[in-house]
Amino acid sequence: MATVNVPPSYFLKSVKNEYYDYQTRLVQELVSNSIDAGATEIAINFTDTGYECIDNGRGMTRERMVEAMLTMGGSVKQEGSVGGFGNAKLIVIFAHKNFQIHSLNTLAKGEVLSYELFDTEHFNGTKISCEFATDFRYEKEEMVRKTKNFLGKCFLSDTYISINGKLFTDYTFLPITRQEDWGDLLTNKDKTTNCCVKVRFNGVFMFEKWIPDLNRNVVFEVRGNPIEVFTQNRDGFKGQMAKNFDGLMAEIAVDKSSFSRQGLRKLVIKGKTPYIQLKEFAEKLQEKLAEVYDDFILQEIQAFLAVPENQRELVKNNLSAQSLRIVDEILAEGKSSAETDFIIDLADSDHTDCPPKFHPDTMGKKYKFIAGLWKQMLIELMKIDKCSDKFQIGFTLSSEAEAIYKREDGIAQFLINPINEKHNAENKNEKYWNIFVAACHELSHFKNYQSGHGENFSKINAEVVAKALTNFPGVTEMVKRAKAGNL
User: Fold this and answer.
1) Each residue of 62-88: b (16+ CB within 10 Å) or e?
2) Cβ-based neighbours of 141, under 8 Å, separated by 6 or more
């Protein structure tokens, strides 16, 4: 019996009809499939004739490979998957001259719809390689450029992706400025000629919407089940999500500041709290110690500085006169600071202005103590974790957040919610430790450079807490400092 012969040009033509930029969509599907497989490392390599994609994900058994990759119309995509549906394999495999798939103990070799399966040595992950068909219009440097351009619209901090051996890091990271039940809007104040809102899911770029005269970076990060909200080729929305998104885009087109209006509800109170100049102090400390030429004196000073701050007064009298003089100079340097702003963030709250009880000029002892303890906790945690950046503190009056981390104009901002029930617990020790945990959490965001809570954040948070519990001077010392100091 004769069979129908289907050349790769048939699938390539279908791909070109379905995708506006089929070359970029190839990269998107490769990255998405690897992320759906749990990969934390992805290598994309372009050769003179084709591509190779290698990841360290879960891999596929022989049965799963046949169903997911080698069956027309078949798919095993789960809820929450970033990648496309069954037709995505057209652009990844069938539209090319030939292909190989190596995953776990199975190797597939094929051309268009014909393939053979082989038992082979174990590969911990999946490796896909294809030779492009003549009509693909392939140029190696152009594919590298398009890959970088696509990844530049993503934010994948938990995944290491390399292009022809070079690690890619130039992702688009923006702070959240507005939240809806169905997604988050992210933007910054940087002006740009970019007039498109980029749509992402779990940090992976899907498509973009042109808004005339937008002139700034804007990202819409989707929440929900992608199978229910995206069209099949994932270049648009369907159902209620389409209505929600179209309404939001119409609002932005009419009022370019509407998407960030919530984020602009902020009160900046000038000169009410110091920058924490840990970096300057660390530099001055090294300069001061470099001037000590007596090995005994140097060792004595270093041993003193290694003692927890709450115990230093007990051992200070044991220092020699020369060491004591240098130590006093060092500690005096550590008190240096520059006045800056106390931040009151009113976003996601019912307030249009700062209530007097939260204003540094009028707040009472209760909230001044919370702010002071928050500041002292962060100073100590920064020192323990060897972070040297300047930072500011303040209050968030959000009805939901316990605390938040932001970065504006290059300065880190750590804002605690003074009315959150955890920070007002009747048991004082419980209240103090709740503030400590919140400080560890927001410091982890600071180190992770993002607002999400992915695998990388969890790892960093565990490291921060472990270091803190090992080296923290103690809550009593922090309370003592908070009561003694100013904001």
Assistant:
1) beebbebbbeeeebebeeebbbbbbbb
2) none
- Tell me: do 417 and 288 sit in the same domain: no
CA atoms of 119 and 182, how far apart (whole Å): 45
d(CA 413, CA 391): 6
Q: What is the residue range of 236's domain?
A: 176-260
Q: Do 220 and 367 share a domain, yes or no?
A: no
What does the angle CA 53 – CA 40 – CA 179 come to, to the nearest 5 degrees?
Answer: 110
Confidence bin at 31 (pLDDT 50/70/90)? very high
Q: What is the pLDDT of residues 390-440, one digit of tens each?
A: 788 999 988 778 998 887 766 788 999 999 999 989 899 999 999 999 999
Question: Is 46 among the domain residues?
Answer: yes
For the four alpha carbons of 371, 376, 380 and 383, in that order, the dihedral sign comes to positive
Distance of CA 11 to the CA centre of its chain: 37
pLDDT higher than threshold 70 for residue 319? yes
22 vs 58 pLDDT, higher one: 58
Task: Say whether both 346 and 318 belong to one domain.
Answer: no
Q: What angle do CA 212, 218, 222 make, to 5 degrees?
A: 115
Q: Are residues 314 and 387 in the same domain?
A: no
Same domain, 309 and 447: no
236 and 382 belong to one structural domain: no
Count of the separate structural domains present in the chain: 4
Sign of the Cα torsion 161, 43, 130, 76 reads negative
pLDDT digits (tens, 9 = 90+) for 190-214: 677 778 999 999 999 999 999 888 8
Does residue 3 fall inside a structural domain?
no
Taking a C-beta distance cutoff of 8 angstroms, is the pair 299, 306 a contact?
Answer: no
Cβ 333 vs Cβ 291: under 8 Å: no
